[in-house]
Design goal:
elongated; mainly alpha
Length: 73
């Protein structure tokens, strides 16, 4: 099995559900006010606000573009 087909194969719903769950948890942490700046790796990076904000945008985009297709399948 090629590693690229694990992520691109439309019939692999398990991977899509796992990534969707990660995105939902990321969004949940943002809603409850989790301070990502206090994470150890972020403090070593310097100013990690832009880094975590980009992760939030990726999570929202993944939810918007993946969830409807997964729910209709």
């Amino acid at each position: 099995m090629d590693i690229l087909t694990v992520f691109n194969d439309p019939s692999n719903q398990t991977m899509q559900i796992v990534f969707l769950a990660f995105a939902v948890v990321r969004l949940y942490l943002e809603v409850i006010g989790f301070k990502f700046e206090r994470l150890p790796i972020t403090s070593k990076m310097g100013d990690g606000k832009g880094f975590h904000r980009t992760g939030l945008y990726f999570s929202i985009g993944y939810i918007l573009f993946t969830a409807p297709g997964l729910l209709m399948a």
